[in-house]
Amino acid sequence: MTENDKLIEVLHQERVRAKKSQSDAAKFLGVTPQAISNWERGYTRIDCISLFRLLDLYGTEVAAFLRACGLLGEQETDRADAEGRLLTLYRGMDERDRARLLRIAAAFNEEEAAPPVKRQSRIIPLYHFLAAAGIPSPQPGEDYEDLAVDADSGADFAARIAGDSMEPYIHDGDIVCCARSIDLRDGDVGIFYADSGMVCKQFLRDSEGNVYLLSLNRARADADLSFPASSGKSFCCYGKVLLKNRIPLPEV
Question: What pLDDT does 65 receive?
Fold first, then answer.
Protein backbone atom coordinates (compact mmCIF):
# COMPACT_ATOMS: atom_id res chain seq x y z
CA MET A 1 0.00 0.00 0.00
CA THR A 2 1.41 3.38 -0.98
CA GLU A 3 1.37 6.48 1.20
CA ASN A 4 -1.43 7.91 -0.94
CA ASP A 5 -3.48 4.67 -0.60
CA LYS A 6 -3.15 4.87 3.19
CA LEU A 7 -4.05 8.55 3.19
CA ILE A 8 -7.31 8.11 1.27
CA GLU A 9 -8.21 5.08 3.38
CA VAL A 10 -7.80 7.03 6.62
CA LEU A 11 -9.59 10.04 5.12
CA HIS A 12 -12.60 7.82 4.33
CA GLN A 13 -12.50 6.30 7.81
CA GLU A 14 -12.46 9.73 9.44
CA ARG A 15 -15.51 10.85 7.45
CA VAL A 16 -17.40 7.73 8.49
CA ARG A 17 -16.32 8.15 12.12
CA ALA A 18 -17.56 11.75 12.05
CA LYS A 19 -20.89 10.51 10.60
CA LYS A 20 -20.59 12.80 7.62
CA SER A 21 -21.77 11.90 4.15
CA GLN A 22 -19.93 12.70 0.96
CA SER A 23 -22.65 15.27 0.28
CA ASP A 24 -21.94 16.88 3.67
CA ALA A 25 -18.24 17.11 2.85
CA ALA A 26 -18.94 18.40 -0.65
CA LYS A 27 -21.28 21.11 0.63
CA PHE A 28 -18.71 22.18 3.24
CA LEU A 29 -15.97 22.59 0.61
CA GLY A 30 -18.20 23.91 -2.14
CA VAL A 31 -17.41 21.03 -4.51
CA THR A 32 -19.45 18.17 -5.98
CA PRO A 33 -19.98 14.86 -4.14
CA GLN A 34 -18.23 13.23 -7.10
CA ALA A 35 -15.06 15.19 -6.21
CA ILE A 36 -15.15 13.75 -2.67
CA SER A 37 -15.72 10.27 -4.09
CA ASN A 38 -12.80 10.65 -6.51
CA TRP A 39 -10.49 11.68 -3.64
CA GLU A 40 -11.54 8.75 -1.45
CA ARG A 41 -11.15 6.28 -4.32
CA GLY A 42 -7.77 7.65 -5.31
CA TYR A 43 -8.93 8.67 -8.77
CA THR A 44 -7.67 12.21 -8.15
CA ARG A 45 -5.28 13.62 -5.56
CA ILE A 46 -6.67 15.89 -2.86
CA ASP A 47 -4.93 19.23 -2.37
CA CYS A 48 -3.56 20.22 1.04
CA ILE A 49 -6.04 23.03 1.65
CA SER A 50 -9.05 20.78 1.01
CA LEU A 51 -7.51 18.00 3.13
CA PHE A 52 -6.99 20.24 6.15
CA ARG A 53 -10.50 21.70 5.82
CA LEU A 54 -12.01 18.21 5.74
CA LEU A 55 -10.04 17.21 8.83
CA ASP A 56 -11.42 20.28 10.57
CA LEU A 57 -14.96 19.26 9.51
CA TYR A 58 -14.41 15.73 10.80
CA GLY A 59 -12.93 16.99 14.08
CA THR A 60 -9.65 15.19 13.37
CA GLU A 61 -6.33 16.56 14.63
CA VAL A 62 -3.82 16.92 11.82
CA ALA A 63 -1.11 15.17 13.88
CA ALA A 64 -3.40 12.24 14.63
CA PHE A 65 -4.32 11.94 10.95
CA LEU A 66 -0.69 11.98 9.81
CA ARG A 67 0.25 9.47 12.48
CA ALA A 68 -2.56 7.14 11.33
CA CYS A 69 -1.21 7.46 7.80
CA GLY A 70 2.29 6.55 8.98
CA LEU A 71 3.63 9.94 7.94
CA LEU A 72 5.01 11.00 11.35
CA GLY A 73 8.14 9.54 12.90
CA GLU A 74 8.57 9.22 16.67
CA GLN A 75 10.20 12.61 17.13
CA GLU A 76 7.68 14.35 14.91
CA THR A 77 4.85 12.57 16.72
CA ASP A 78 6.05 13.84 20.12
CA ARG A 79 6.29 17.37 18.79
CA ALA A 80 2.89 17.12 17.12
CA ASP A 81 1.33 15.76 20.33
CA ALA A 82 2.73 18.67 22.32
CA GLU A 83 1.50 21.15 19.74
CA GLY A 84 -1.89 19.45 19.74
CA ARG A 85 -2.19 19.69 23.53
CA LEU A 86 -1.19 23.34 23.45
CA LEU A 87 -3.74 24.05 20.74
CA THR A 88 -6.45 22.28 22.73
CA LEU A 89 -5.65 24.37 25.81
CA TYR A 90 -5.61 27.54 23.73
CA ARG A 91 -9.03 26.81 22.23
CA GLY A 92 -10.48 26.34 25.72
CA MET A 93 -9.29 29.73 27.02
CA ASP A 94 -11.10 33.03 27.00
CA GLU A 95 -9.64 35.95 25.05
CA ARG A 96 -7.80 37.39 28.08
CA ASP A 97 -6.02 34.10 28.87
CA ARG A 98 -5.19 33.59 25.18
CA ALA A 99 -3.51 36.99 25.12
CA ARG A 100 -1.54 36.09 28.28
CA LEU A 101 -0.38 32.80 26.77
CA LEU A 102 0.79 34.53 23.61
CA ARG A 103 2.77 37.10 25.64
CA ILE A 104 4.42 34.32 27.65
CA ALA A 105 5.30 32.40 24.47
CA ALA A 106 6.74 35.55 22.90
CA ALA A 107 8.87 36.19 26.01
CA PHE A 108 10.26 32.63 25.98
CA ASN A 109 10.97 32.91 22.28
CA GLU A 110 13.01 36.07 22.85
CA GLU A 111 14.98 34.39 25.65
CA GLU A 112 15.76 31.32 23.55
CA ALA A 113 16.65 33.23 20.41
CA ALA A 114 20.34 33.05 19.62
CA PRO A 115 22.10 36.40 19.71
CA PRO A 116 22.72 37.76 16.24
CA VAL A 117 26.18 37.16 14.84
CA LYS A 118 28.00 40.44 14.71
CA ARG A 119 29.82 40.74 11.42
CA GLN A 120 33.31 42.18 11.46
CA SER A 121 33.65 45.44 9.61
CA ARG A 122 36.24 48.02 8.66
CA ILE A 123 36.08 51.67 7.62
CA ILE A 124 36.71 53.10 4.16
CA PRO A 125 36.29 56.70 2.95
CA LEU A 126 33.09 57.66 1.14
CA TYR A 127 34.21 60.64 -0.91
CA HIS A 128 31.92 63.64 -1.19
CA PHE A 129 33.59 64.62 -4.44
CA LEU A 130 35.23 62.02 -6.60
CA ALA A 131 38.13 64.35 -7.28
CA ALA A 132 39.07 63.92 -3.63
CA ALA A 133 39.95 60.32 -4.39
CA GLY A 134 43.15 61.54 -5.96
CA ILE A 135 44.42 64.17 -3.59
CA PRO A 136 47.24 63.20 -1.23
CA SER A 137 45.63 64.02 2.14
CA PRO A 138 41.83 64.29 1.97
CA GLN A 139 40.29 65.99 5.00
CA PRO A 140 37.69 64.05 7.07
CA GLY A 141 34.31 65.76 7.15
CA GLU A 142 35.24 68.00 4.24
CA ASP A 143 36.27 65.63 1.49
CA TYR A 144 34.93 62.33 2.82
CA GLU A 145 33.05 60.56 5.59
CA ASP A 146 33.60 57.15 7.11
CA LEU A 147 31.71 54.19 5.64
CA ALA A 148 31.62 50.76 7.31
CA VAL A 149 31.99 47.73 5.01
CA ASP A 150 32.48 44.01 5.67
CA ALA A 151 35.97 43.19 6.85
CA ASP A 152 36.51 40.86 3.90
CA SER A 153 35.40 43.44 1.34
CA GLY A 154 38.00 44.29 -1.27
CA ALA A 155 36.92 47.94 -1.32
CA ASP A 156 39.43 50.76 -0.75
CA PHE A 157 37.03 53.68 -1.12
CA ALA A 158 33.42 54.46 -2.02
CA ALA A 159 31.75 57.08 -4.16
CA ARG A 160 28.22 58.30 -4.75
CA ILE A 161 27.04 58.16 -8.37
CA ALA A 162 25.15 61.03 -9.97
CA GLY A 163 23.07 60.80 -13.13
CA ASP A 164 21.36 58.05 -15.11
CA SER A 165 24.03 57.05 -17.60
CA MET A 166 24.72 53.75 -15.79
CA GLU A 167 21.09 52.65 -15.44
CA PRO A 168 19.68 50.08 -14.92
CA TYR A 169 22.70 48.61 -13.09
CA ILE A 170 23.82 51.64 -11.10
CA HIS A 171 21.22 54.22 -10.17
CA ASP A 172 21.38 57.94 -9.53
CA GLY A 173 22.43 58.38 -5.90
CA ASP A 174 23.82 54.85 -5.46
CA ILE A 175 26.97 54.38 -3.40
CA VAL A 176 29.50 52.12 -5.12
CA CYS A 177 32.48 50.49 -3.43
CA CYS A 178 35.70 50.52 -5.40
CA ALA A 179 39.10 48.84 -5.33
CA ARG A 180 42.06 50.96 -6.34
CA SER A 181 43.22 49.43 -9.60
CA ILE A 182 44.47 50.43 -13.02
CA ASP A 183 44.38 46.86 -14.30
CA LEU A 184 40.97 46.77 -15.95
CA ARG A 185 39.57 44.11 -18.25
CA ASP A 186 37.04 44.75 -20.99
CA GLY A 187 33.63 45.04 -19.35
CA ASP A 188 34.89 46.23 -15.96
CA VAL A 189 33.20 49.32 -14.54
CA GLY A 190 35.53 51.95 -13.15
CA ILE A 191 35.88 55.45 -11.78
CA PHE A 192 37.84 57.59 -14.22
CA TYR A 193 39.16 61.11 -14.51
CA ALA A 194 38.57 62.04 -18.13
CA ASP A 195 37.81 65.22 -20.05
CA SER A 196 38.36 67.33 -16.93
CA GLY A 197 35.79 65.43 -14.84
CA MET A 198 35.19 62.30 -12.79
CA VAL A 199 32.97 59.70 -14.42
CA CYS A 200 31.73 56.17 -13.78
CA LYS A 201 31.89 54.15 -17.02
CA GLN A 202 32.40 50.68 -18.46
CA PHE A 203 35.86 50.06 -19.87
CA LEU A 204 36.59 48.69 -23.36
CA ARG A 205 39.87 48.55 -25.28
CA ASP A 206 39.79 47.31 -28.87
CA SER A 207 42.47 45.37 -30.76
CA GLU A 208 44.00 48.61 -32.07
CA GLY A 209 44.47 50.08 -28.61
CA ASN A 210 41.57 52.52 -28.77
CA VAL A 211 39.82 52.94 -25.40
CA TYR A 212 36.12 53.55 -24.90
CA LEU A 213 34.41 54.54 -21.65
CA LEU A 214 30.81 53.52 -22.16
CA SER A 215 27.48 54.36 -20.58
CA LEU A 216 25.51 51.25 -19.68
CA ASN A 217 22.33 53.19 -20.41
CA ARG A 218 22.44 53.27 -24.20
CA ALA A 219 19.85 56.01 -24.21
CA ARG A 220 22.73 58.08 -22.82
CA ALA A 221 25.27 57.07 -25.44
CA ASP A 222 25.95 60.79 -25.78
CA ALA A 223 27.88 60.49 -22.52
CA ASP A 224 30.31 57.88 -23.96
CA LEU A 225 33.96 58.89 -24.09
CA SER A 226 36.56 57.65 -26.58
CA PHE A 227 40.35 57.80 -26.53
CA PRO A 228 41.84 56.85 -29.91
CA ALA A 229 45.33 55.41 -29.55
CA SER A 230 46.72 57.99 -31.97
CA SER A 231 45.00 61.04 -30.46
CA GLY A 232 47.24 61.62 -27.46
CA LYS A 233 44.18 62.06 -25.25
CA SER A 234 44.56 60.50 -21.83
CA PHE A 235 42.47 59.46 -18.85
CA CYS A 236 43.18 58.19 -15.36
CA CYS A 237 41.56 55.23 -13.64
CA TYR A 238 41.05 55.69 -9.90
CA GLY A 239 39.54 52.29 -9.21
CA LYS A 240 37.32 49.42 -10.26
CA VAL A 241 33.71 49.36 -9.09
CA LEU A 242 33.02 46.14 -7.18
CA LEU A 243 29.82 44.58 -8.52
CA LYS A 244 28.11 41.33 -7.58
CA ASN A 245 27.72 40.25 -11.20
CA ARG A 246 29.67 40.99 -14.33
CA ILE A 247 27.81 43.33 -16.66
CA PRO A 248 27.83 42.51 -20.40
CA LEU A 249 29.27 45.06 -22.77
CA PRO A 250 26.60 47.06 -24.63
CA GLU A 251 26.34 47.01 -28.40
CA VAL A 252 28.11 50.08 -29.69
Answer: 79
CA 92 to the chain's CA centroid: 39
More confident residue, 97 or 122: 122
pLDDT at 90: 67
Which DSSP string do the residues of 161-213 spell out, in sequence order? --SSTTTTTS-TT-EEEEE--S-PPTT-EEEEEETTEEEEEEEEE-TTS-EEE
Domain ranges of the chain: 3-112, 121-241
> What top-level class would CATH report for the domain 121-241?
mainly beta
Task: Kindly report the CATH class assigned to 3-112.
Answer: mainly alpha
Please say whether the beta carbons of 164 and 227 come within 8 A: no
Judged on CB neighbours under 10 Å (0-12, 13-18, 19+), 241 is buried
Q: Is residue 164 within 8 Å of 217, Cβ to Cβ? A: yes
Grade residue 250 by pLDDT with cuts at 50, 70 and 90.
confident
Q: How close are the terminal C-alpha atoms of the chain, in Å?
A: 65
pTM, full prediction: 0.51
Q: Do domains 3-112 and 121-241 have the same CATH topology?
A: no
Counting beta carbons within 10 angstroms of the beta carbon of residue 136, is it exposed (0 to 12), middle (13 to 18) or buried (19 or more)? Answer: exposed
